[in-house]
């Protein structure tokens, strides 16, 4: 058994154990946390063992599943999936750690049930990124929806049923169309080789030489599934609903990790299998990508709800990722691959911080807040750090990838890159406006201020110059008692993300080195055809 | 000394980290640590300055920062004449203002965090000037933008402060896009972003690309330095505490645009069009800033527009290329002294006057605050170009160089710079008269928070830095300009200073003409504000030019109409569209499918044979689709 198989099986076993502990929330939480931390500890040697200079797919293993159709259960990792596996392993313990501080579970639900689904989700998502058999990938791509469906539909907000069904239908339909394309590729292979196979490497060898007209149809099947998942506009409308209704930890999984299967799919399946189609259809994808950058940013600025805000921010960022992939340029594509990691960290932190704010104030409406910083300076600082990474400030992780995407895209596709740079300004606008509305100004908002609360507010009127006069809080109105700053435990949960965000901003080399050869191989596969 | 020059950045960076991450535990000694780190960097800078020869640039690579294939960005520092001058300015003036802030911010409960932000600023600013590639410059460039954002928004309770902070960051980001695109062009055409490689390869690329790079860099410079058309954020930035205005929005950060253009001298030397646009932007902005400066009653806003105008002089100078790089830097240095001194003086006045900024409520303060008056007065004489003080040497040198251009350029640029010198004399005299002379108008009124005024001199921790800066305001200009001391020192970095032969006015006339014009401005201000009493209330029934100047010559209105309002409508429209249009279509489709599935439900008969039939039908459809794909 390879190390990789152990990484997939451990969370599954853990999920069974945690599911058995549904009667004891505390024990279930501790067990799940322990399992996820062991998983993280196992990922460290796995990361170190991957040699970028060696074979592209490492840790490979394979066993027969349905021999008649050449279907195998085979796993392996390249530099890009390595990144994604690592980020899942980092995020899951953090998600488990935030349980409780980012809102309560709905009535009648247990932590055990919730966390076992989270662990199943972790195993399946690692499986999707590690699958090297196209049929296995498809199956995991679809099965992965099931725990997510239950996580949104069972543990989410008031409108969770609608959101869960919408999420499921969208992704499931996309998957079915992908299945049709996968079978098409299979039959091409059986014509060519005399025997069908779903093995990724073999399929790539065969399908990439198919005529352009065939490639385009097969490409579109895969592309649609991934464009829904990623999501690109106009396939995005499920995400704000799903992200808005899902509990915070699940939103992190969904936006931070699951959605990356879409952009990962572009890199692993669309480009190498259908190079000709990729090149011919690139302008179309680039238009969707750049439109997504602008459209997502503008809509993010217009949102009244914090969680929907995060969803639209992600739509803009997925636009950047798609731009970098379909610019067919080495720096841009490395930028996109690392963007997938950095977006998970930045947006993951943003979602958690927003979740903590919403749990404190009991509302996700932005207008229910204002002037919160003076009550919760540490929480305010965390929101600012997450926001600065979201707007790709140099010195944070996201800057590296956005800079690479734009620099590379400018090399081959200057017009698209120039339009996308408008997204840089818009990102500053929506992030700082959100921060301004929630954190700065006089203390205000129904979520923070109550007439009956104890009056810990009334922070001293500041000294100093300037024209305007400070508006003091009305004496009988004070901050609600629930609005307290981060606890030590909450700081400990967020600290690893802060360290990674700043650390990878100043020293991204370890990540860039792991991913560059796999990206270059992908790019060569497109350009040689 | 050079090899460990990263320590220059490390001291304040470590200070910022300890002060911001350490929290309340560091409250007791945080301000002292904040000062100590900057002083340490200043001392290191001094030792470096005296122990090293700056005949050529020395690059040190710290580590490989962004290595991806053909793109290799190192985290490296460049020590040369230009960067070491800036190191001394930033840490020297920075240390003085840190010390001043101990007194100025003593009542603020969050003084420790304030020092953390200031340290963050100094570290970023040092990265900006020390980086040896355009990407490290960009890191510092946005880092100072962040520090500026945090400090402008310092007074959290004022909604205006938060809005001003956001406005500053956004307008800077517009400029930053220009800088980013310039970097992308360098990579596309030269394949590198390091200074050494870019300057070596810039001559071999198409002239249009050189001009494009120059203009995009200028866009970045306009954003950071408050030059037209991105000037509107700088006056609003006065919402920040006054030491911040002195350090960031007068002496150092806002002059980064001038640094950028001087640093990119090898690029600008190759594009005359690019230089001409820089000169035009500088000449236009120096007039714009000085005119608006006449209209404000807010002491800090007058100084802010004065900064806009003075940086216009520096831009004009560096736009003249080899005729002006060193002159622009010289004025930048003396301006760093006298404008920081003026701001600290204004802060001292505000400290004494319940944080009031309206000069109409001041008057006759010279007897109450003699040290502030003396230091402020020396700064005032320096900025209006009083003979033999700093401004006289550095500003006149720029006006001379502008008149040194041939043909219409000489008349237009020289004329604009000369006219603005007169206007500077006017608005600065008005400011001094309203604040320190005339009737003590504050005796009869209360401040806006309802307190009486009890003006008093500031404590020594505040006046000492003001005195040091006043000394610089007096002597720095002569020391830098006479005998071309600075120009010779900078020559290895920006090239030797060229002397014009074909100017439109002889060199000997210009200085005295400038003094004459300035004197006219001073005299006019005395006629209007010195001889008669000023009303506490602002007169509303004024002529059109004054109304226009009070509205920033419609700069903000222009931004509102062209950018802010359309963006707001676009946002509202897009939200509507997404909810009704895109998602509406999807939900409509879902409803149609739902109706369809209701009809389909009748097909679910429960008979296995009909299921088998439908499965067969489905399979046939899929296979048919596959066959079509394969044989098309």
Automatic annotation (TrEMBL), chain A:
Keyword list (alphabetical) reads: Membrane, Oxidoreductase, Transmembrane, Transmembrane helix
- GO cellular component term of the entry, any: membrane
Pfam families given in the database record:
Proton_antipo_M
Question: Which principal EC class is assigned to this enzyme?
Answer: oxidoreductase
Does this entry carry the keyword Metal-binding? no
Q: What is its EC number?
A: 1.6.5.11
* NADH:quinone oxidoreductase/Mrp antiporter transmembrane domain sequence ranges: 131-425
User: Transmembrane stretches, by residue range?
Assistant: 29-50, 71-96, 135-155, 167-189, 216-235, 247-269, 281-302, 309-328, 340-359, 371-395, 415-435, 491-508
Q: Organism's domain of life?
A: Bacteria
Check the record and name the InterPro entries matching this protein: NADH_Q_OxRdtase_chainM/4 (IPR010227), NADH_UbQ_OxRdtase (IPR003918), ND/Mrp_TM (IPR001750)
Per UniProt, subcellular location reads as: Endomembrane system; Membrane
Principal subcellular localization: membrane
Is Transmembrane among this UniProt entry's keywords?
Answer: yes
Molecular function terms from GO: NADH dehydrogenase (ubiquinone) activity; NADH dehydrogenase activity; ubiquinone binding
List the GO biological process terms. Answer: ATP synthesis coupled electron transport; electron transport coupled proton transport
User: What topology does it adopt in the membrane?
Assistant: Multi-pass membrane protein
**PANTHER family registered for this protein in UniProt:** NADH-UBIQUINONE OXIDOREDUCTASE CHAIN 4 (PTHR43507:SF1)
Q: Which family does it belong to?
A: Belongs to the complex I subunit 4 family.
Protein name, per record: NADH-quinone oxidoreductase subunit M
**Organism of this sequence:** Prauserella cavernicola
UniProtKB/TrEMBL annotation, chain B:
Recorded GO cellular component terms are: endomembrane system; membrane
Q: Which Pfam families match?
A: Proton_antipo_M, Proton_antipo_N
This chain's protein is named NADH-quinone oxidoreductase subunit L
Q: How does it sit in the membrane?
A: Multi-pass membrane protein
Question: Mainly resides where?
Answer: membrane
Subcellular location as annotated: Endomembrane system; Membrane
NADH:quinone oxidoreductase/Mrp antiporter transmembrane domain mapped to chain residues: 132-414
| GO molecular function ontology, one term from the record | NADH dehydrogenase (ubiquinone) activity
Q: Which residues form a coiled coil?
A: none
Q: Which UniProt keywords apply?
A: Membrane, Transmembrane, Transmembrane helix
- A Gene Ontology BP annotation from the UniProt entry: electron transport coupled proton transport
NADH-Ubiquinone oxidoreductase (complex I) chain 5 N-terminal domain location: 65-115
Transmembrane annotation, as ranges = 6-22, 29-50, 81-102, 114-131, 168-190, 205-223, 244-262, 274-295, 302-323, 371-393, 413-438, 459-482, 509-529, 608-629
